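Q: Sequence in, structure out?
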Amino acid sequence: MAAITVLGPADHGRPMTREEFESARGQEGYHYELIEGKVYVSPVPDLPHDRIVEWILGLLRDYSRMRPDVINYISTRARVILPGRAVPTNPEPDLAAFHDFPHDQPFGEVSWDDISPILVVEVVSEDDPEKDLERNVALYLEVPSIREYWILDPRKDADHPTMRVYRRRGRRWQRPINVAPGETYATRLLPGFALRLDPHD
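A: Exactly. Output:
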């Protein structure tokens, strides 16, 4: 029986197959992704980051209960499979919302390869802002199902984060929309949903 690979921060950039990556386990305190066939290691975000994710998650789950025809599954542990890649690239967003999740299928018969989100959300980390502000902008554009990419940035003030929104138009992103603290963002992607950018609201 092969030994299980234990990943840690020293493994950042280590080449791995998808099978090797999925069978490995990671040292606690770090987040692991497989990008361009290599392990991408980043620190687990701090508590303010987690609170913002939970805030957005709660709002979208409330919306999903009212409009399951628009969003019928939301995950904070999703793995996004980029299509047509010679080497595996599977970013893992802070939050992913799905439109046509197959709830009627047995749990064991659905994998991340079978589904793809319409919306992904990332909260910028002080330790690795480039991952969300640059790397993932390019990666998520490669996934045709992703209609919008929201980036919440709490670095200046976690109680008053800003947000940048990328909306798809064909094979490119439109010019990003910047939402200031306290402003409200609405989108045709989620009819009837309005996000007031205030985690304390």
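The mean pLDDT is 96.
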